[in-house]
Every structure is written in structure tokens, then in C-alpha cells.
Amino acid sequence: MRTPLIAGNWKMNNTEVEALSLVRKLIQGIKSLTTVEVLICPPFTSLSQLSKLLVSSPIQLGAQNISDHDAGAYTGEISPRMAAEFCSYVILGHSERRAYYGESDALINRKTKVAQRADLTPILCVGEQLDERERGQAAVVITRQLQGALQGVKLSDPSGLVIAYEPVWAIGSGLSASAGETADFIGGVIRPVVSGLWGQEISQKIRVLYGGSVSPENAGGFFTHDEIDGALVGGASLSADSFLGIIEKAS
Ligand code: PGA
Predict the structure, then answer these.
(1) Do 62 and 91 meet the contact criterion of CB atoms below 8 Å apart?
(2) How many beta carbons lie within 10 A of that of residue 128, not counting itself?
(3) In this structure, which topology does domain 5-250 adopt according to CATH?
(4) Where would a tag sit more exposed on the chain, N or C end, judged by fewer CB atoms within 10 A?
(5) DSSP label at residue 73
(6) Residue 24: how many CB atoms within 10 A of its CB?
(7) What string of DSSP letters covers 139-205?
(8) Which of 232, 242, 243 maximizes ligand 1 atoms within 8 Å of its Cβ, making it the mutation to test the pocket?
(9) What is the domain partition of the chain in residue ranges?
(10) What is the C-alpha separation between 77 and 101, in angstroms, rounded?
(11) How far apart are CA 5 and CA 208, in angstroms?
(12) How far, in Å, is the centroid of ligand 1 from the Cα of 34?
């Protein structure tokens, strides 16, 4: 049995004051978390204060990005060790970073390796564009992204990596992928690639999330499929009510 993970990606939203207010509401709303793991990924500027607020809460913190270097003269960057002071996870390969900041599979591969060295669990995002899907290329694209980002990455414990399948056309668009198709894609494409890298057992134990316009209304449909181990939630993680609604569907 894989424990579902519900991760909120706040993106570039919420000042520290706003972050504290939102997380206070989440803490109140989450009574006991035994069947689902909950993670929020705020901007770096709120991590320190939120880590204090969450000290006795089961809600975990993640980073939205890290440098591909361990330390040194890289102006403006945040090192994996700095993020790991507050975070247990880091989102890598998000489609917005690929599209707006030119992140390549090679760069994501380096970030994956430095994250592991700092004891941060990568949440590796992969996803096809709409035209790639329409041309029947989704499986090829996802396979290339996974193999590129994970080349030479060692994994002996399946909890050391999470994969998030996020079709790019579904992110922030209100158009989610169909739950059945997503489950088939995870079982038919993503787990076999993982099996090729690290074997059958890891491929069955590793968690694969869905992301792209997840809401309290559609979340239940995804979580009825065994192949889908939770969600990476963008827009709906910015409201306590809707994020709590999604967590409730998973638990
Ligand atoms: P969305 O974003 O839920 O707003 O579609 C998902 C994501 O970018 O991870």
C-alpha cells in the first residue's frame, strides 16, 4: 500500500503574513492525518516562519526549486542544504520552470542529484504539451523526460523519489485529464520506465501523483484509481477550504 501524498504548490503567491494565515486555517482543518501525507510548497521567503508554526503539525514543507550546485558563488540561488533546513521535499522539473526558465532534462538531472545529496526528496514533474498529446507523442515525451532527469540517479528506497504526472495543457486551465486515462498512463508508461531504471519492486512502490486543475470536485475521481497516489495541486492549494476538500477526498 502506498500512502497518498497531497502536495500544494503555491507557486509565486502569498507573502509571509498571508502564508501564516492560510497555514493556520489548514492546521485547524486537519484534525488527524493518519492515512494521507500532506505537503505544502510555499515560496522560500515563508519557509522559516512556517516551519516554526508547523513544528507540532503533520503538515510538511517542500521547496519549489533549488540550485543545481551544492554551494558557492551562484548569486540569487538557494542551495539544496538551505532548502533542507526547512523542507523534506523539492519540486523539480515543473513545466513552468521548463517553459519560462529554460530548464532542460540535463539541468533537472543535476538538481535531482544534488537534492538527494541534501536529503531532499524530489517530486519530479513530467508532462506533455497539448500538441504532443494530439500527435500521439505523450508516451515518448514522458519517457524521454523521465530517462533524462533520472539518468545515473540511484534509488534503493522507493520513498526517495515522487513522480508527478502533470499534462501541461491541464495546468491552471480548468481542464483536467480524465482519471481513467491518467491511471492507464501511469500504469502503462510511467511505472514501466521506473521499472527499467530500478526494477519491478521499486516501480510498484514509488508514488506517482497526478497534477493539473485538481479541485475538490474532481479529486475523488482520481483517487478511486489505485495507480494514482495523490495530487500536486496548484490553484486549489491557495484556499484552505479547497485544499482541505482535496485532502478529505484522499483520506
Ligand atoms: P493547477 O497547478 O492545480 O493550478 O493546475 C498544478 C501545478 O502546476 O502543479
Answers:
(1) yes
(2) 23
(3) TIM Barrel (3.20.20)
(4) N
(5) S
(6) 12
(7) HHHHHHHHHHHHTT---SSGGG-EEEE--GGGTTTS-PPPHHHHHHHIIIIIHHHHHHHH-HHHHHH
(8) 232
(9) 5-250
(10) 13
(11) 9
(12) 25
**Going along the chain, which residue ranges are E strands?**
5-9, 37-41, 60-63, 89-92, 121-126, 162-165, 207-211, 230-233
The grid coordinates listed for 228 are 494514482
Other C-beta atoms closer than 10 Å to the C-beta of 53 total 16
Output DSSP code: residue 235. G
* Confidence (pTM): 0.97
Residues with CB under 6 A from ligand 1: 9, 166, 171-172, 211-214, 232-236
**Residue 211 contacts residue 219 (beta carbons within 8 Å):** no
Phi, psi of 180 (to 5 degrees): -65, -45
Polymer length of the chain: 251
